[in-house]
Amino acid sequence: MVSEGPSEARVQELIASGDYDEALSMLDDIDSDDTGFVQALMGDAFLSKRDFESAAVHYRVADSLGQEGSLYNAAVALWSAERFDEALGLFVQVWERDGDALSGEAVAENLYFLGRLPEALRVAEEVAALGDDEHSRRSAGIAGSIRFSHFKERGSRIEELLRRGAAVYEDAAADLGSLLWEDGRLDEAEGVLRDAVARGQESAAIVLGNFLQDERRDFVGAAEAYQEGIRMGDAYSAYNLGLLLIQILGDPKAGRRWIVYAAAHGDEKAQAHTSLKHQHGK
Predict the structure, then answer these.
(1) What angle do CA 242, 244, 247 make, to 5 degrees?
(2) 252 φ/ψ angles, rounded to the nearest 5 degrees
(3) Model-level pTM?
(4) Residue 228 or 8, more confident
(5) Is 156 helix (H, G, I), strand (E, B) or coil?
(6) Quick one: average pLDDT of 71-75?
(7) In whole angstroms, what is the distance from residue 204 CA to residue 193 CA?
């Protein structure tokens, strides 16, 4: 890492405070031999400004000048600009060059996002074997979730992967809770799911709600779990809460409001439900 001078340090303060235009203006005036570092700072400013295309350009220049970490940052900027294939290509370059857990996890997670599951699983398991840092544990969680949710695998190896990733990769916690529930280890499943929701892991909230509703018959607790999922941004929890209110808790008016909310936020079942109601004039 190249050490920065007083001007570069001031630029970093401006970026941190949200004064991006002033930071960029100052960078234009900096007379520095370390042009790679200056280009990387310009990338930081544009990235913070959400001008992802410009950020990627400056990070690429910084990388060409030998600035460490800039190619990875260019990939982040391109991914944010929804240029997914280009971004993935850069992440793969960094992973193949450096073999580090940070870039390997990015490759695995982005392959997973793009639906390239066998490739994502292969890379995730390679990264999971590198150590016990956060990126390796997240990669273990990715591998466990792919095997559990998509390849429908079960057993101690899947549980081990999900446990490694549960605290740092939210789908792993939800899947671990589901695995334990399937296995009849109900108290353990509930504990895993409650801990995940307490950590703010969105995908665990709906599983906890379903568990409390279907297994414990704790309808009030289920409603609270769904509400927590909604607070974290999960439209599927809103749909489940709506059905619970209509079918069990005896509040159809509130239930319909939540189903409409879920439909407006992208829940396909809620959209089908509201469409059917309109077709029948209800």
Answers:
(1) 105
(2) -65, -30
(3) 0.87
(4) 228
(5) helix
(6) 98
(7) 6
CA 40-42-48 angle, 5° bins: 105
Alpha-carbon distance of 254 to 243, in angstroms, equals 10
Tokens coding 51: 């001008």
The tokens of 67 are what? 């600035």
pLDDT over 90, % of the chain: 82
Q: Decide: 124 and 101 in contact? Cβ < 8 Å.
A: no
What are 101-158's pLDDT values in tens digits? 999 999 999 999 999 999 999 999 999 999 999 999 999 999 999 999 999 999 999 9
Distance CA 255, CA 249 (A): 9
221, burial (CB in 10 Å: exposed 0-12, middle 13-18, buried 19+): middle
Q: And the tokens for 26?
A: 């100052």
Q: Which two tokens stand for residue 234?
A: 């999960």
CB contact at 8 A, 133 and 99: no
Q: What is the pLDDT of residue 131?
A: 96
Residues in the chain: 282
- Helix, strand, coil content of the chain in percent (nearest 5): 75, 0, 25
- First-to-final CA distance of the chain: 64
Q: Which residues contact 153 (CB under 8 A, 6 or more apart)?
A: 147
Cβ-contact 252, 246 below 8 angstroms: yes
* Residues 269/259, Cβ–Cβ less than 8 Å: no
